[in-house]
TrEMBL record:
EC number: 1.16.3.4
EC class: oxidoreductase
Signal peptide from the UniProt entry: 1-27
Quaternary structure note: Monomer.
Chief site of localization: periplasm
Record protein name field: Multicopper oxidase CueO
Domain Plastocyanin-like residue range list: 101-196, 414-545
UniProtKB keywords: Metal-binding, Oxidoreductase, Signal
Amino acid sequence: MSMFSRRQFLGSMGAMGAAAAYPGAWAASATPSGLSTDEVLRLEAQATGFFNPLRLPGTSGLFGVLPVTDFKEVHVVRSEIEVLPGQRTPVLAYAVESGGKKFLNPALLARQGDQMRVKLINRIDQPTVIHWHGLSVDSRNDGNGLHVVAPGQQMDYAFTVQDRSSMYWYHPHAHGFIPRQAYHGLASLLFVEDEDEATLRKELALALGESEIPLVLQDKEFDAQGRLQYAPSAAQSFGGWVGSRMMVNLTERPVLKAGRRIVRFRLLNGSNARSYRLAFLQQGRALGFYLAGSDGGLLAQPVRIDQTFLSPGQRLDVLVDFREAEGGRPVTLASLPFDPMHQEGGHDMAAMDHSQHGAALGAAAPAAMAMEGDARALMRIDLTATEALYDRRMPTRLSSLAAPVELAGTPRRMQLGHDGKGHWTINGGVFDHAAVPLTVQRGARETWLIENAERSMPHPMHLHGFSFRVLERLGSPDQIRPLAGARGLLPQDLGVVDTLQVWPGESVKIAIDFSHPHTGDQDYVFHCHTLEHAEAGMMMRYAVKA
């Protein structure tokens, strides 16, 4: 770790306290836990050199906003865009033409109850398929990789959007090609709106792309010509691919202008493997902000925090009141230092941390390859005077989300580990597309206990077809426990979740309701959303019997 040793880091994290303003609430501290004021100022100094305007959703082009009712035909294509200033980068993209406009990776807007009717046409030389991450759809429309679209072929999707308001996303899921295709650009956002969402936007006067800002966090590698580099060795495939160059909405070193008002940030970790420990910094201190929602929508009430972890596949909905910030000075969105816990594996490949990527990249390797867990500035936010009087207040209620129900009895165990041969496992097995090791009944309510081996790595586990609620965390590492409240729960655990980070040695209890409106048997997968881990075996099929 660049700022101080791992021993010093763990000691400082262990000394942290979770100051709760009331049960289930997390209060902000003046300086981020485990860092000095000088270290925070160094992070802010990184952001002073940021100068690229953040890419925002527009009316067309890259990330152009498109209602799902106009999303009729999408082509998977090879294209080029300017990612780095002055250079054209070849990418994979979802291309759409609608209303005389062209879109790449459109940000889709849906109302609860909208009908999705879209034809996917594969125009690249690899099989692919779209997975609608977080949406509760039948397995035929889930895009879970059990059926893919061959080059030159097409597939029709048809389903009703029935989920709670949230920011979901869509990305490829053809086994054997998932990490490479996602890394090269195949991913975008899908916003679902319901009455709670409409009420919040009206109450806070929010507008997408202005005071409501989606932020897709990714890390990339480029060669001298600006081409994306993805060539993992066996060790990197086992550990997960981590790039050294930070991107927000495919913008390196981005700057955003924001008014001194409540601004909403919709965050997605779209990285293959990198996790982030996020905080908003100004003048050597952390700005408190409010967690408003998680993967599957709004919390019952906002929770005030000063930092949060975000792992691959996860989304967070946060509200920042920039009236609390000092006027005239920028705010930095940063990833604070943390222990990525990549050296717990006990296997030769697991012992290789991400700082060794350069060995495989050879001459193309950057001079200073960053390790996951290093402190990094991600974005600078320049505060501007609000044109009109803004007198909105943070809401005390966001939704009618009920508390989760815990069932009596012994939970179903899901044990995460590896076989010592380069494969990640679930219950000792590696992914076999022909095997269905788990069957549940439609309408069943189950409790699962997801147990990560101590000699392991963190695993963000994603369940297809259903969301779930987190009941308890046990055995959390030192850097996690101080951020937790009752029953070891992190703030984002209070919401509806479809992707869950499970740290080495940790056991997490979740509640799943397998009720659904679809006819017939359904077939889904459960896997790690560190994409290289899924390809290295940490995925299993499960069936829901009618």
